[in-house]
Amino acid sequence: PKTPTDADVLNIYNDYSKVADIERYLKLLFRPFTCFLNTKCQYNLRKLRLCLPDSTYDPDRHMALMTTYRMPSASIKIYANGNMYSQALTQYNAYKVLVDFSEALAELDGCSPSVIHPKFNLVNATFCMPFPLDLEALNERIKPNAVYIPKENPFLTYTTPRTIQFVIFPMGYVYVMFCTSPYETRQAIVHVLPLLYTCRAPTQQNQCDLELTHGDINLMLLWEKEFQRDYDFSIQW
Fold this sequence. Notes:
Elements: H1 6-10, H2 19-25, E1 29-30, E2 33-38, H3 45-51, E3 65-69, E4 74-78, E5 83-88, H4 91-109, E6 119-120, E7 123-128, H5 135-142, E8 146-147, E9 156-159, E10 165-168, E11 173-177, H6 182-197, H7 207-210, H8 214-234
Antiparallel strand pairs: 1-7, 2-5, 2-6, 3-4, 4-5, 7-11, 8-9, 9-10, 10-11
């Protein structure tokens, strides 16, 4: 793979022949759109397995019954306690699939499912800049849309007018959150990259020093779980 130039990165989706190399260079990882619903129903998964020919249920390996949905395309997990999870190409589809599916199940067992208060995955993508960032300078550049209190948190939070949110760490690691589709996620990345390139930290480190170690990755996953937990508890039930 080729190492992209700065111009390549700043025009990440202008030339699709270079996209794979750029995404690899930025360690860009997209998350599927997931939705969770507590339908407040009780399901007999063995019975459902017989009614759903494309489903699989092996309680010795997994507590959930797993199946797929075709229009729109999605995967679904159903638990006996009424919890349901879906993965789809957009946030709306992830929710719509669970609503349609739970209503179809209601016709089988007579349960009236609750389809309100869905929970979605918060983080839609992560990437890492090839240089450290000066968060003080970034904060000054994007005020008043930024929150940066280094005594409380080691990151800066930037919210766009479209309510998409970025959490940015000084090592260059970035979370992209509150998007609703892959297109919106990519547009958000296109929007933030020029800002990040203008706020490199004054002290340049060797590229090898910036490589994410296993410890860094584990720490970033812990932060992601923390952001998701805070978001879940903020939802009124």
